[in-house]
Amino acid sequence: MLNLISCELLKLKRSKxxxxxxxxxxxxxxxxLIEALQTHFDKPEIIFTLSDIYSDSVLYxxxxxxxxxxxxxxxxxFSREYTENxxxxxxxxxxxxxxxxxxxxCTLLLWIVMLTLVTWASIxxxxxxxxxxxxxxxxxxxxxxxxxxxFLLGSLLMFLxxxxxxxxxxxxxxxxxxxxxxxVIIMGSAALSNQEWGxxxxxxxxxxxxxxxxxxTSYPIWLSVAIILLVSAVGFFMTFHHFKKEDLxxxxxx
Length: 254
Description:
Elements: H1 2-14, H2 17-42, H3 50-63, H4 65-83, H5 87-90, H6 97-134, H7 141-160, H8 163-172, H9 176-192, H10 202-211, H11 221-245, H12 248-253
Helix pairs in contact: 1-6, 2-3, 2-4, 2-6, 3-4, 3-6, 3-7, 3-10, 4-6, 4-8, 4-9, 6-7, 7-10, 8-9, 8-11, 10-11
């Protein structure tokens, strides 16, 4: 399994997707910097802290920018063997299809965690620049570290909810359908981010869990967790079932 993950990481290292994905998640810290500057100049009486900025960033990460980036990564990882016609080089390798998919899912999880850490660290650095010029209340590395567990929990929950998009990528053997699906999902998340029903919408429920917003709704935490796990399990099952039943020989020849 470690060899499979290493192989996937090496392929990613040689592709343009790695720097593109990093650039994508870096947009979140810069959007927050622009928001902070706008608030400072338009409403200087408003005092906000580093913790406030990290709290606001969770919305961008879990419901907007980073979510779309993570779906793009998932679609790329699982569809590239079709789009780049590399299945013919994989078929002769004595590795089961289950292990092949597990290796890709593990790589996806590692990549999502890495990009989440990049986002977390970049927010601290960007806020440091703001702090050096205007002074930011509560700017401390200890505050940033305090938010790290929430960011990591969010990355795990987002990984679980990418499984349906992986199935779409395998089913369509492409990149376009998962991205269109993610755009629809993100619009739904934005609409429900301040609604109680967001606790029942798996891609918004992850955000509610991390931010503790479910406690302000009439729904129990276990129900949101169960919905997320159900959607994730269905996505994983359909992905493995489809890939194990597919005639890869004919696909590779095509």
